[in-house]
Known about the structure:
- The chain is α/β, with parallel strands linked by helices.
- It has a single domain, classed as Aldolase class I (TIM Barrel, Alpha-Beta Barrel).
- Helices cover 38% and strands 18% of the residues.
- It is built from 8 helices and 8 strands, in the order βαβαβαβαβαβαβαβα.
- The protein has an 8-stranded parallel barrel, surrounded by 5 helices.
Amino acid sequence: MPRIPRVTAISSGTSVPGAAFTSWLERLREANVDAVQIREKSVDDRVLLALVVEAVRVMTDGPLVIVNGRADVAIAAGADCVHLPGAGLPPASVRRLIGDHRVLGCSTHSLAEITRARDAGADYVYFSPIYDTPGKGKPVGLEELARASTLGISVIALGGITIDRLTELAAAGAVGIAGIRMFSPPNDLQQLTRAAARHFDSA
């Protein structure tokens, strides 16, 4: 069975190799997040590879390391997972490239997209935005999340997630959460991961 993360921290989009990035990774590991996703669209290939290599080093035998959109970088760095954006490569093609031992995820925004990702061999999907989030379009809402959770694939909630919304997300069938801002200071990461473990272990 693939290892599906309950709590995924997504990088800021402005990360660069160095002490600040390593410190962020170390804080995430200490807080017991399940995964870190390196999502840096504006850096060149060498910088992206350096970021992923450092994430793999810090997270050894711990949280999953997810690479956004780049199966080649994930393979080169020894990362655990590839996550495909909505307009990314076909999941079935990426599955053939990365094999069955790596986890494959997809971003989705509708039930039809979830079904296509499932049928193409994805292990999980992000479904978003659940709540109103600046610049992310109309939220899909909890009722649609509940429908998504019946489609036979693990659904991770994304978009406007806060610690006080975990109960209703778990009740709607989400198996976990992902986000950017909630994993940045001054948020209490230990409190967040403990609460998520309680909610999604029982979901």
